[in-house]
Amino acid sequence: MRATVGDKLVQHGRVVGQHDKVAEIVEVMGAEGTPPYRVRFQDGHEAVCSPGPDTEIRHKDVSRPIGK
């Protein structure tokens, strides 16, 4: 798993009815984009996490022009 600042970390719900948790990666603490990551959730809460198998990284789209 590799990420860069600005990517989204998505923790999938583990039980039926539990929503996914989405956070923005604000700091990559491992070497060459590897965990752990400092993340900021939508409510402003920050945490350090080492993602598990129920997590995916959604990379920011760098090819898309700003404002489009």
What is the structure about, briefly put?
It comes from Streptomyces colonosanans. The protein is mainly beta and 68 residues long.
Largest beta sheet: strand ordering: 4-3-2-1-5
Order of helices and strands: EEEEE
- Class by helix and strand content? mainly beta
Query: Could you describe the largest sheet, including whether it forms a barrel?
Result: 5 strands, antiparallel
Strand content: 35-45%
Evaluate the radius of gyration.
13 Å
What descriptors fit this protein?
single chain; 68 residues; mainly beta; 5-stranded antiparallel beta sheet; 5 strands
Can you walk through the features of this model?
- The protein is mostly beta strands.
- It has one domain.
- Helix content is 0%, strand content 37%.
- Strands 4-3-2-1-5 form a five-stranded antiparallel β-sheet, with no helix packed on it.
- The relative contact order is 0.31.
How is the topology of this model organized?
Blueprint: E1 8-11, E2 21-28, E3 37-41, E4 46-49, E5 55-58
Antiparallel strand pairs: 1-2, 1-5, 2-3, 3-4
Organism: Streptomyces colonosanans
Domain DUF1918: 1-57
Protein name: DUF1918 domain-containing protein
